[in-house]
Design goal:
alpha+beta, elongated, single chain
Length: about 475
Protein backbone atom coordinates (compact mmCIF):
# COMPACT_ATOMS: atom_id res chain seq x y z
CA UNK A 1 0.00 0.00 0.00
CA UNK A 2 1.41 3.35 -1.01
CA UNK A 3 1.58 5.94 1.73
CA UNK A 4 2.59 9.56 1.64
CA UNK A 5 5.50 10.98 3.59
CA UNK A 6 4.65 12.37 7.01
CA UNK A 7 4.58 16.10 7.32
CA UNK A 8 5.97 17.75 10.44
CA UNK A 9 4.99 21.35 9.77
CA UNK A 10 2.76 22.79 12.50
CA UNK A 11 1.23 26.22 12.24
CA UNK A 12 2.60 28.60 14.83
CA UNK A 13 -0.77 30.42 14.80
CA UNK A 14 -2.50 27.49 16.44
CA UNK A 15 0.35 26.95 18.88
CA UNK A 16 0.37 30.62 19.87
CA UNK A 17 -3.40 30.67 20.44
CA UNK A 18 -3.11 27.50 22.47
CA UNK A 19 0.05 28.28 24.46
CA UNK A 20 -0.65 31.98 24.82
CA UNK A 21 -3.98 33.05 26.24
CA UNK A 22 -6.24 30.01 26.65
CA UNK A 23 -3.69 27.23 27.25
CA UNK A 24 -5.74 24.56 25.50
CA UNK A 25 -3.27 21.72 26.11
CA UNK A 26 -5.38 18.83 24.72
CA UNK A 27 -5.94 20.62 21.42
CA UNK A 28 -2.23 21.46 21.15
CA UNK A 29 -1.20 17.85 21.68
CA UNK A 30 -3.79 16.67 19.17
CA UNK A 31 -2.64 19.06 16.47
CA UNK A 32 1.04 18.18 16.91
CA UNK A 33 0.37 14.45 17.11
CA UNK A 34 -1.99 14.34 14.17
CA UNK A 35 0.05 16.62 11.94
CA UNK A 36 3.12 14.43 12.35
CA UNK A 37 1.35 11.25 11.17
CA UNK A 38 0.87 10.10 7.55
CA UNK A 39 -2.39 11.22 6.01
CA UNK A 40 -3.87 7.69 5.37
CA UNK A 41 -3.67 6.91 9.09
CA UNK A 42 -6.67 9.17 9.72
CA UNK A 43 -8.73 9.49 6.51
CA UNK A 44 -11.39 11.73 8.09
CA UNK A 45 -8.67 14.16 9.18
CA UNK A 46 -6.72 14.13 5.91
CA UNK A 47 -8.59 17.01 4.28
CA UNK A 48 -8.65 19.32 7.34
CA UNK A 49 -4.97 18.68 8.03
CA UNK A 50 -4.09 19.34 4.41
CA UNK A 51 -5.99 22.60 4.59
CA UNK A 52 -4.14 23.50 7.77
CA UNK A 53 -0.79 22.88 6.04
CA UNK A 54 -1.45 25.11 3.07
CA UNK A 55 -3.66 27.80 4.58
CA UNK A 56 -1.90 31.09 5.26
CA UNK A 57 -3.64 32.79 8.15
CA UNK A 58 -4.48 36.44 7.87
CA UNK A 59 -1.98 38.66 9.54
CA UNK A 60 -3.40 39.96 12.78
CA UNK A 61 -2.18 43.19 14.23
CA UNK A 62 -2.35 44.12 17.85
CA UNK A 63 -3.90 47.40 18.90
CA UNK A 64 -1.16 47.94 21.47
CA UNK A 65 2.09 49.80 21.18
CA UNK A 66 3.96 46.79 19.81
CA UNK A 67 1.31 46.26 17.16
CA UNK A 68 1.88 49.75 15.81
CA UNK A 69 5.24 48.65 14.45
CA UNK A 70 3.68 45.77 12.54
CA UNK A 71 5.73 43.06 14.25
CA UNK A 72 4.99 39.45 13.35
CA UNK A 73 2.95 37.47 15.83
CA UNK A 74 5.88 35.29 16.93
CA UNK A 75 8.00 38.35 17.74
CA UNK A 76 5.16 39.91 19.72
CA UNK A 77 4.72 36.68 21.64
CA UNK A 78 8.42 36.43 22.51
CA UNK A 79 8.61 40.08 23.55
CA UNK A 80 5.53 39.69 25.75
CA UNK A 81 7.20 36.74 27.45
CA UNK A 82 10.42 38.71 27.92
CA UNK A 83 8.96 41.92 29.37
CA UNK A 84 7.86 40.70 32.86
CA UNK A 85 11.08 38.86 33.82
CA UNK A 86 13.21 41.71 32.49
CA UNK A 87 11.31 44.31 34.51
CA UNK A 88 11.42 42.11 37.61
CA UNK A 89 15.13 41.32 37.30
CA UNK A 90 15.98 44.96 36.60
CA UNK A 91 14.05 46.11 39.66
CA UNK A 92 15.52 43.45 41.96
CA UNK A 93 19.14 44.01 40.90
CA UNK A 94 18.81 47.80 40.98
CA UNK A 95 17.18 47.84 44.43
CA UNK A 96 19.79 45.43 45.83
CA UNK A 97 22.67 47.60 44.57
CA UNK A 98 21.08 50.79 45.89
CA UNK A 99 20.39 49.28 49.31
CA UNK A 100 24.02 48.20 49.59
CA UNK A 101 25.12 51.75 48.74
CA UNK A 102 22.65 53.24 51.26
CA UNK A 103 24.15 51.12 54.04
CA UNK A 104 27.65 52.28 53.10
CA UNK A 105 26.52 55.90 53.08
CA UNK A 106 24.95 55.57 56.52
CA UNK A 107 28.23 54.18 57.83
CA UNK A 108 30.25 56.90 56.11
CA UNK A 109 28.05 59.78 57.27
CA UNK A 110 27.44 58.54 60.82
CA UNK A 111 29.86 61.13 62.23
CA UNK A 112 28.29 64.05 60.38
CA UNK A 113 24.99 65.83 60.82
CA UNK A 114 23.91 65.33 57.22
CA UNK A 115 20.20 65.50 56.55
CA UNK A 116 18.37 62.38 55.42
CA UNK A 117 17.27 64.25 52.30
CA UNK A 118 20.93 64.64 51.36
CA UNK A 119 21.41 60.88 51.54
CA UNK A 120 18.42 60.44 49.23
CA UNK A 121 20.03 62.89 46.79
CA UNK A 122 23.28 60.91 46.95
CA UNK A 123 21.50 57.67 46.11
CA UNK A 124 19.49 59.33 43.35
CA UNK A 125 22.66 60.54 41.66
CA UNK A 126 23.95 56.95 41.61
CA UNK A 127 20.85 55.50 39.92
CA UNK A 128 22.29 55.96 36.38
CA UNK A 129 25.50 54.19 37.43
CA UNK A 130 23.72 51.19 38.93
CA UNK A 131 21.20 51.11 36.09
CA UNK A 132 24.10 50.62 33.70
CA UNK A 133 25.27 47.66 35.81
CA UNK A 134 21.82 46.10 36.21
CA UNK A 135 20.63 46.45 32.61
CA UNK A 136 22.89 43.77 31.00
CA UNK A 137 22.17 41.30 33.81
CA UNK A 138 18.40 41.83 33.58
CA UNK A 139 18.44 41.55 29.78
CA UNK A 140 20.41 38.30 29.85
CA UNK A 141 18.25 36.74 32.59
CA UNK A 142 15.03 37.61 30.77
CA UNK A 143 16.17 36.07 27.46
CA UNK A 144 17.49 32.99 29.26
CA UNK A 145 14.21 32.47 31.15
CA UNK A 146 12.09 32.93 28.02
CA UNK A 147 14.05 30.28 26.10
CA UNK A 148 14.04 27.93 29.09
CA UNK A 149 10.28 28.33 29.46
CA UNK A 150 9.72 27.66 25.76
CA UNK A 151 11.82 24.54 26.13
CA UNK A 152 9.87 23.36 29.17
CA UNK A 153 6.58 23.70 27.26
CA UNK A 154 7.99 22.04 24.11
CA UNK A 155 7.34 25.26 22.19
CA UNK A 156 10.92 25.38 20.90
CA UNK A 157 10.45 21.92 19.37
CA UNK A 158 7.19 23.03 17.78
CA UNK A 159 8.81 26.14 16.33
CA UNK A 160 11.73 24.17 14.92
CA UNK A 161 9.34 21.57 13.47
CA UNK A 162 7.33 24.34 11.79
CA UNK A 163 10.41 25.61 9.98
CA UNK A 164 11.43 28.45 12.31
CA UNK A 165 15.19 28.45 12.72
CA UNK A 166 17.10 29.37 15.85
CA UNK A 167 18.51 32.38 14.02
CA UNK A 168 14.96 33.60 13.31
CA UNK A 169 14.08 33.01 16.95
CA UNK A 170 16.95 35.29 17.96
CA UNK A 171 15.90 38.27 15.83
CA UNK A 172 13.54 40.02 18.31
CA UNK A 173 16.01 39.65 21.17
CA UNK A 174 18.88 41.09 19.13
CA UNK A 175 16.59 43.95 18.08
CA UNK A 176 15.87 44.69 21.74
CA UNK A 177 19.61 44.59 22.39
CA UNK A 178 20.15 47.15 19.62
CA UNK A 179 17.57 49.47 21.20
CA UNK A 180 19.22 49.03 24.60
CA UNK A 181 22.56 49.87 22.97
CA UNK A 182 21.25 53.27 21.91
CA UNK A 183 19.86 53.81 25.40
CA UNK A 184 23.18 52.76 26.95
CA UNK A 185 25.14 55.21 24.81
CA UNK A 186 22.99 58.03 26.17
CA UNK A 187 23.15 56.61 29.70
CA UNK A 188 26.91 55.95 29.83
CA UNK A 189 27.89 58.90 27.68
CA UNK A 190 25.81 61.77 29.02
CA UNK A 191 23.62 60.91 32.03
CA UNK A 192 26.15 59.04 34.18
CA UNK A 193 28.85 61.78 34.11
CA UNK A 194 26.45 64.38 35.50
CA UNK A 195 25.11 61.91 38.07
CA UNK A 196 28.62 61.04 39.23
CA UNK A 197 29.57 64.70 39.62
CA UNK A 198 26.34 65.36 41.54
CA UNK A 199 27.18 62.46 43.86
CA UNK A 200 30.68 63.82 44.56
CA UNK A 201 29.28 67.32 45.08
CA UNK A 202 26.65 66.16 47.59
CA UNK A 203 29.14 63.88 49.34
CA UNK A 204 31.54 66.78 49.83
CA UNK A 205 28.72 68.85 51.31
CA UNK A 206 27.66 66.01 53.61
CA UNK A 207 31.18 65.35 54.90
CA UNK A 208 32.35 68.94 55.33
CA UNK A 209 29.32 71.01 56.27
CA UNK A 210 26.93 71.29 59.13
CA UNK A 211 29.34 70.22 61.88
CA UNK A 212 27.83 71.30 65.21
CA UNK A 213 31.04 71.05 67.28
CA UNK A 214 30.09 67.62 68.62
CA UNK A 215 32.50 64.70 68.41
CA UNK A 216 31.63 61.07 67.73
CA UNK A 217 33.76 58.48 69.57
CA UNK A 218 36.66 56.92 67.65
CA UNK A 219 36.04 59.16 64.65
CA UNK A 220 38.43 61.64 63.07
CA UNK A 221 36.78 65.04 62.61
CA UNK A 222 38.05 67.60 60.09
CA UNK A 223 36.58 71.02 61.02
CA UNK A 224 38.81 72.78 58.50
CA UNK A 225 41.88 75.04 58.72
CA UNK A 226 44.19 72.02 58.99
CA UNK A 227 42.67 70.60 62.19
CA UNK A 228 42.08 66.92 62.93
CA UNK A 229 40.27 66.02 66.16
CA UNK A 230 39.41 62.64 67.69
CA UNK A 231 38.48 61.13 71.06
CA UNK A 232 38.25 57.59 72.41
CA UNK A 233 35.19 58.24 74.59
CA UNK A 234 32.52 60.95 74.36
CA UNK A 235 29.59 61.72 76.66
CA UNK A 236 26.02 61.91 75.24
CA UNK A 237 26.36 65.66 74.61
CA UNK A 238 29.40 65.15 72.39
CA UNK A 239 31.33 67.87 74.25
CA UNK A 240 33.13 66.07 77.10
CA UNK A 241 35.97 63.97 75.72
CA UNK A 242 38.36 61.32 77.00
CA UNK A 243 41.52 60.16 75.23
CA UNK A 244 41.77 63.31 73.10
CA UNK A 245 43.93 63.59 69.99
CA UNK A 246 44.41 66.96 68.23
CA UNK A 247 46.56 67.70 65.21
CA UNK A 248 46.78 71.12 63.58
CA UNK A 249 48.98 73.05 61.16
CA UNK A 250 50.10 76.36 62.63
CA UNK A 251 52.19 77.61 59.71
CA UNK A 252 53.59 76.04 56.55
CA UNK A 253 56.04 73.44 57.79
CA UNK A 254 55.03 73.71 61.47
CA UNK A 255 52.71 71.02 62.81
CA UNK A 256 51.50 70.44 66.33
CA UNK A 257 50.13 67.27 67.91
CA UNK A 258 48.41 67.36 71.32
CA UNK A 259 47.16 64.40 73.34
CA UNK A 260 45.24 64.67 76.60
CA UNK A 261 43.48 62.47 79.10
CA UNK A 262 40.27 64.52 78.98
CA UNK A 263 38.87 67.74 77.62
CA UNK A 264 35.82 69.94 77.15
CA UNK A 265 34.83 71.31 73.74
CA UNK A 266 32.83 74.57 73.62
CA UNK A 267 31.90 76.56 70.48
CA UNK A 268 31.93 80.37 70.76
CA UNK A 269 31.50 83.47 68.57
CA UNK A 270 28.38 82.42 66.74
CA UNK A 271 29.45 78.82 66.39
CA UNK A 272 32.57 79.54 64.31
CA UNK A 273 35.20 79.41 67.06
CA UNK A 274 36.28 76.39 69.12
CA UNK A 275 37.56 76.49 72.68
CA UNK A 276 39.06 73.16 73.72
CA UNK A 277 40.14 72.92 77.36
CA UNK A 278 42.44 69.94 77.92
CA UNK A 279 43.69 68.33 81.13
CA UNK A 280 46.89 66.31 81.51
CA UNK A 281 47.98 67.32 78.02
CA UNK A 282 51.15 66.46 76.13
CA UNK A 283 52.26 68.75 73.30
CA UNK A 284 54.60 67.92 70.43
CA UNK A 285 55.51 70.66 67.95
CA UNK A 286 57.65 69.95 64.89
CA UNK A 287 59.58 72.77 63.20
CA UNK A 288 61.72 72.62 60.06
CA UNK A 289 65.50 72.61 60.60
CA UNK A 290 65.07 72.84 64.37
CA UNK A 291 64.60 70.46 67.26
CA UNK A 292 60.98 69.53 68.00
CA UNK A 293 59.38 71.02 71.09
CA UNK A 294 57.83 68.67 73.66
CA UNK A 295 55.88 69.91 76.68
CA UNK A 296 53.42 68.76 79.31
CA UNK A 297 50.55 70.74 80.83
CA UNK A 298 48.09 70.15 83.64
CA UNK A 299 45.61 72.29 81.75
CA UNK A 300 45.82 73.62 78.20
CA UNK A 301 43.33 75.79 76.32
CA UNK A 302 43.28 75.69 72.53
CA UNK A 303 41.26 78.16 70.50
CA UNK A 304 40.69 77.60 66.81
CA UNK A 305 38.17 78.70 64.20
CA UNK A 306 36.30 76.09 62.17
CA UNK A 307 34.12 76.06 59.07
CA UNK A 308 30.36 75.78 59.33
CA UNK A 309 29.82 75.70 55.57
CA UNK A 310 31.46 73.31 53.15
CA UNK A 311 34.37 74.65 51.12
CA UNK A 312 33.62 75.32 47.44
CA UNK A 313 33.68 72.12 45.41
CA UNK A 314 35.65 71.84 42.23
CA UNK A 315 34.09 72.19 38.79
CA UNK A 316 32.92 69.14 36.85
CA UNK A 317 35.65 67.38 34.91
CA UNK A 318 38.17 66.77 37.66
CA UNK A 319 37.92 63.04 36.86
CA UNK A 320 37.58 61.32 33.49
CA UNK A 321 34.40 59.55 34.61
CA UNK A 322 32.69 62.95 34.98
CA UNK A 323 33.19 63.82 31.30
CA UNK A 324 30.65 63.16 28.56
CA UNK A 325 31.52 61.32 25.37
CA UNK A 326 31.97 64.53 23.40
CA UNK A 327 34.23 65.96 26.13
CA UNK A 328 36.25 62.74 26.22
CA UNK A 329 36.64 62.90 22.46
CA UNK A 330 37.95 66.44 22.79
CA UNK A 331 40.36 65.38 25.54
CA UNK A 332 41.70 62.61 23.29
CA UNK A 333 42.84 65.29 20.83
CA UNK A 334 43.98 68.21 22.99
CA UNK A 335 45.02 66.86 26.42
CA UNK A 336 48.58 65.93 27.49
CA UNK A 337 49.69 62.36 26.70
CA UNK A 338 48.80 60.87 30.10
CA UNK A 339 45.36 62.49 30.23
CA UNK A 340 44.87 61.55 26.59
CA UNK A 341 45.41 57.86 27.38
CA UNK A 342 42.95 58.00 30.29
CA UNK A 343 40.34 59.76 28.17
CA UNK A 344 40.74 57.22 25.36
CA UNK A 345 40.43 54.21 27.67
CA UNK A 346 37.31 55.69 29.31
CA UNK A 347 35.75 56.50 25.93
CA UNK A 348 36.40 53.03 24.51
CA UNK A 349 35.19 51.30 27.70
CA UNK A 350 31.84 53.09 27.54
CA UNK A 351 31.39 52.22 23.88
CA UNK A 352 32.34 48.57 24.46
CA UNK A 353 29.83 48.20 27.31
CA UNK A 354 27.11 49.72 25.15
CA UNK A 355 27.56 47.62 22.02
CA UNK A 356 27.95 44.38 23.99
CA UNK A 357 24.20 44.18 24.68
CA UNK A 358 23.15 42.71 21.27
CA UNK A 359 25.63 39.87 21.87
CA UNK A 360 23.93 38.72 25.08
CA UNK A 361 21.09 36.82 23.30
CA UNK A 362 23.72 34.83 21.39
CA UNK A 363 24.97 33.62 24.78
CA UNK A 364 21.61 33.32 26.56
CA UNK A 365 19.76 31.31 23.91
CA UNK A 366 22.22 28.36 23.71
CA UNK A 367 22.43 28.17 27.51
CA UNK A 368 18.65 28.44 27.81
CA UNK A 369 18.11 25.64 25.29
CA UNK A 370 20.69 23.49 27.09
CA UNK A 371 18.90 23.95 30.43
CA UNK A 372 16.86 20.89 31.22
CA UNK A 373 13.53 21.00 32.98
CA UNK A 374 13.87 22.54 36.43
CA UNK A 375 17.68 22.88 36.10
CA UNK A 376 18.22 26.48 35.10
CA UNK A 377 20.64 27.34 37.89
CA UNK A 378 23.82 25.91 36.28
CA UNK A 379 23.29 27.89 33.09
CA UNK A 380 22.84 31.13 35.02
CA UNK A 381 25.95 30.37 37.09
CA UNK A 382 28.06 29.82 33.96
CA UNK A 383 26.71 33.00 32.38
CA UNK A 384 27.41 35.01 35.54
CA UNK A 385 31.01 33.80 35.56
CA UNK A 386 31.46 34.69 31.88
CA UNK A 387 29.94 38.17 32.31
CA UNK A 388 32.00 38.90 35.43
CA UNK A 389 35.20 37.85 33.67
CA UNK A 390 34.25 40.07 30.74
CA UNK A 391 33.57 43.07 32.98
CA UNK A 392 36.82 42.66 34.91
CA UNK A 393 38.81 42.16 31.71
CA UNK A 394 37.54 45.53 30.46
CA UNK A 395 38.60 47.15 33.74
CA UNK A 396 41.99 45.43 33.52
CA UNK A 397 42.44 46.74 30.00
CA UNK A 398 41.60 50.24 31.22
CA UNK A 399 44.25 49.93 33.92
CA UNK A 400 46.89 48.82 31.42
CA UNK A 401 45.97 51.72 29.13
CA UNK A 402 46.04 54.31 31.94
CA UNK A 403 49.49 53.13 33.05
CA UNK A 404 50.82 53.30 29.50
CA UNK A 405 51.45 49.55 29.33
CA UNK A 406 49.27 49.06 26.24
CA UNK A 407 47.42 51.02 23.60
CA UNK A 408 43.95 52.07 24.86
CA UNK A 409 42.28 50.80 21.70
CA UNK A 410 43.90 47.35 21.88
CA UNK A 411 43.62 46.99 25.66
CA UNK A 412 39.89 47.79 25.79
CA UNK A 413 38.63 46.33 22.51
CA UNK A 414 40.46 42.99 22.83
CA UNK A 415 38.09 41.67 25.57
CA UNK A 416 35.14 42.67 23.38
CA UNK A 417 36.50 40.74 20.40
CA UNK A 418 37.06 37.63 22.55
CA UNK A 419 33.59 37.91 24.10
CA UNK A 420 31.95 38.36 20.70
CA UNK A 421 33.83 35.34 19.33
CA UNK A 422 32.71 33.21 22.29
CA UNK A 423 29.06 34.21 21.88
CA UNK A 424 29.07 33.57 18.12
CA UNK A 425 30.81 30.22 18.57
CA UNK A 426 28.24 29.04 21.12
CA UNK A 427 25.39 30.26 18.95
CA UNK A 428 26.76 28.54 15.84
CA UNK A 429 27.20 25.27 17.74
CA UNK A 430 23.61 25.44 19.00
CA UNK A 431 22.33 25.84 15.44
CA UNK A 432 23.97 22.60 14.34
CA UNK A 433 22.51 20.62 17.26
CA UNK A 434 19.87 22.56 19.21
CA UNK A 435 20.27 22.13 22.94
CA UNK A 436 23.86 20.92 22.62
CA UNK A 437 26.64 23.37 23.53
CA UNK A 438 30.31 22.95 24.44
CA UNK A 439 29.29 23.84 28.00
CA UNK A 440 26.81 20.98 28.31
CA UNK A 441 29.13 18.81 30.38
CA UNK A 442 29.75 21.74 32.75
CA UNK A 443 26.01 22.43 33.00
CA UNK A 444 25.29 18.77 33.71
CA UNK A 445 28.07 18.54 36.29
CA UNK A 446 26.87 21.66 38.10
CA UNK A 447 23.28 20.44 37.99
CA UNK A 448 24.22 17.05 39.42
CA UNK A 449 26.26 18.72 42.15
CA UNK A 450 23.40 21.02 43.12
CA UNK A 451 20.93 18.12 43.15
CA UNK A 452 23.20 16.04 45.37
CA UNK A 453 23.66 18.92 47.81
CA UNK A 454 19.91 19.47 47.98
CA UNK A 455 19.29 15.76 48.61
CA UNK A 456 21.91 15.65 51.38
CA UNK A 457 20.45 18.73 53.02
CA UNK A 458 16.94 17.30 52.95
CA UNK A 459 18.19 13.96 54.24
CA UNK A 460 19.92 15.58 57.22
CA UNK A 461 16.90 17.65 58.25
CA UNK A 462 15.31 16.25 61.43
CA UNK A 463 11.88 14.77 61.00
CA UNK A 464 9.06 16.62 62.81
CA UNK A 465 7.96 15.03 66.05
Amino acid sequence: MKTSRPTHRVLFTDLWLIEGAKRSAPRCKTVIWAACLPRPCFPPLARPLAAMRVRKPARRRSAGVIGLFGLPMMDRYLLQLMAPPMAGALGVVLIALLLERILRLFTLLASSSARFELIIDLVGNLVPHYLGLALPAAFFISVFLVIARLGDNNEVDALLASGVSIARLTVPFVAVGAVLTLFSVVLFGFIQPYGRYGYNFDLNEALNSGWDARVQPRTFIDPGHGITLSADKVDPTGRRLEGVFLRRTLQPGIEEVITAGSGVLVPTQGGKQLTLTLENAQQYRERPDREPVVGGFDQLTVEQSFDVDAPPFRARGGAQRELTLTELRREMKTAPPEARREAASEFYARMVRSISLPLLPLLAIPLGMAAKRGRRGPGIVIAAIVLLLYQHSIQLGQGFADDGMASPFIAVWSPFVLFAALCMWLFASSQRRPGETPFNFIVDALGDGIDSLVKRFRHRQPEPA
